[in-house]
Amino acid sequence: MGQALRPTADPAWLLSEVGYDPLRESSFETRVAISNGFLGLRGALATDLGACRTLPPRTYVAGLFDTALVGAPIPERLPAPDWLQLRIGLPDGPYLACPDPSSRDVTLDMRRGLLLTQIRQPPGAALDIRLSTLRLVSLDMRGIVLQLVELAVEQGMGEITLDVTSGEASPLLIPVTTEPDLGVWRTRQSGKTLAIAMDAAVVIDGRTQPPTVRTAGRWSWSLRVQAGQTVVLRRNLAVTRGDEPVDDPGGRARSDLALATGLGWRGLLERHETAWRERWDRSDVVVEGDPEAQRALRFAVFHLNGAADPGDERVSIGARALTGDDYLGHVFWDTEIFLMPFYAMTWPQAARALLTYRYRTLAAARAKAAGMGWRGALYAWESADTGDEATPAQVVGPDRKVVDILCGTQEQHVSADVAYAVWQYWQATDDTAFLLEAGAEIILETARFWWSRAGLEADGLHHIRGVIGPDEYHETVDDNAFTNVMARWNLLRGLDIAALMGERWPDRWATLSTRLDLAADELESWRRTAAAMATGLDPETGLFEQFQGYHDLEAIDLSAYAGRSVPMDVVLGRERTQASQVVKQADVVALLALLPDEFPGDADAVNFDHYAPRCGHGSSLSRALHGVAAARLGRSELALGYLRDTSAIDLGDSHVAIAGGVHIAALGGIWLVAIFGFAGLVVHSDGLSFAPRLPAGWTRLSFPVQWRGRDLVVTVDLVRNVLEATLRGGDTMVVSVGHVRRTLSVGWPIRIPLPSTPSPVAA
């Protein structure tokens, strides 16, 4: 067991912390959380902390939503009962009732997907025991949790007790079965079930010790130990979720547990580590010359790999993934815009599952649009398991006043964002089955929404009034450029889908168009709407007005507020912020990052230079899209600063406000800056192109990507001034840098010289 409890030798794969600081513990528990897309465990100590704990331990199960019996009917992801609690009793009291500041060493081994802990008793204890733990949520068997605890007795002799206990269940979980090895609960309103089966064993010097107590919620061992002995606790959990009344999650949990127990902890660990090796082989980003950036990217990719479950099409990834309680587990546009590119290019099966979730919730999107008087599909701004709108109507603001939340009705760009993700997935994978079974319908129904939403007015233009763009400081605005241009793009892609299906799959098109009652005259109306969409673009300057009237608002020099520790709406107050040009997050710049073709000539620089100084970055999402745009403009050092600032949100030592979970979309944004920004990746119908713009100090950037069944590794090498590409599997494809196009085949790597001046990025 000793080797298993030792972390990977290469420190570049490790995130470690020595000591214990109660003020930072909740943030650290977030940072070293482990998950597999179905289960998430925060990095709480294995031993009971009593009064020292700042937050209760958390075990999360994807898709386990219910609605409280009182208050606003907002669904929330319920924490599962914590079955990983361990109390160790020693002759002179509990083991580590409150840790000595120097007694603990916690390591997140990202290479192996493990959380490892070393703890020592403070000096003077009757028994000197060194505690080592290993914890994993299996990436191979997603319902399985393994916990290993090793107690090495180094001095002394005496009685110890080990109590394995489970925490209290949420009030929204009703107990159905309470047995020593199985607990089953039912949610009060949503009709879901949760089952947890457990098996545990204690071994001393190779001999298994029977428990002295074995009841529901508690297994206990009383042991006499002496110096030189080693006590090992091994615990397996099997967790299942049931979504239908006929489900038998208890039976499935026991079956899964039997399989896991039969493999043994070594077998479970080996299969888990193999699964992680395979994920890293297809997703690891290697940077040479910048250890800080390497750490940021590896941390980001670790959590991205742990956030998705390609086997579950009923769930998506919430704003804090499975690492914290913030936003109640709700899904936002973040998933499609900031996470989907990573999955589409490194893990298409996971991307497909996430988009299938959106297809499963299409009925709710249609109902929302109809309820507001429009046609087509308007997706929920905050979505849970059903896809119904889950945005709270009010919250308490920083000034403790009740604030109305309008995002649920006005932040409508989410429908175009979902369509954008579907199209990007289709371009990256050529997954015809998904397009015909789900993707085409999503794009068509979201396009229909924008057609009904954009009203034709006396000036001959179609306007979209009363919305909120990504910049949430400004509400109920007209003709938000991001919303309108994305809506136009959505309409045009709807027309492309109709033409494509009519040409390649006419029978399928006849069936779908009939079911949707989508006639040729409506499609022609879509074309007219797109052609006459108001966008706020000044054709002479190339500058988009963020929304109608934005240029008339108060201009505020944000440099005068440099170093502030709170968002600008707190500094200025809501009313003055709304009357100013201060932007919460990338809005026109977000459009620049997503649809660069909308900015011909030097319009990209014009818009970036206008809006970047006006952005207060009041959202964790903001800097990443600024980084992508800056890198494409060739401003690599500025882009690197955005990457570092984004990384600091979750990794910065000065940040203690991430107790609610990692900012998973920001982590996806870090990957975007590196791959779509610095490497300049663009996906085409006939291959991939690159326009590398590495920042100073980066000598090499290497990463794997997948494209339409091909698996390749790309390396930008500034020492030799070449881009190298190796095809590891799949058919021949085209790779280009600037105007140089090369054919790439398995067994025949290519090298393309890098141009001295990078070519502009084409979409």
Please explain how this structure is put together.
The protein contains 19 helices and 32 strands. The two termini are 52 Å apart. The model is unreliable at 758-763 (pLDDT under 50). The protein has three domains: 11-281, Glycoside hydrolase, family 65, N-terminal domain (Beta-galactosidase, Chain A, domain 5), CATH 2.70.98.40; 292-678, Glycosyltransferase; 679-763, Sandwich (Maltose phosphorylase, domain 3). The strands form seven sheets. Strands 1, 8, 9, 10, 11, 13, 14, 15, 16 and 19 form a ten-stranded antiparallel sheet that branches. With 763 residues, the protein is α+β, with helices and mostly antiparallel strands.
| Portion of residues within helices | 25-40%
Which structural class matches the secondary elements? alpha+beta
Mean pLDDT: 93
- Under CATH at level 1, the class of the largest domain stands as Mainly Alpha
Number of strands: 32
Quick overview:
With about 775 residues, this protein is an alpha+beta fold.
Helix/strand layout:
Elements lengths: L13 E5 L6 H7 L2 E2 L3 E3 L17 E9 L7 E6 L4 E6 L2 E2 L9 E6 L4 E7 L7 E10 L6 E12 L1 E9 L7 E7 L2 E6 L5 E12 L2 E3 L3 E3 L2 E9 L3 E13 L6 H33 L4 E3 L2 H17 L26 H13 L1 H13 L1 H10 L22 E3 L5 E3 L2 H4 L3 H16 L2 H22 L1 E2 L5 E2 L17 H24 L1 H10 L4 H12 L36 H5 L1 H5 L9 H7 L8 H9 L10 H11 L3 H16 L12 H15 L3 E2 L3 E4 L9 E8 L2 E8 L4 E8 L3 E5 L2 E5 L5 E4 L10
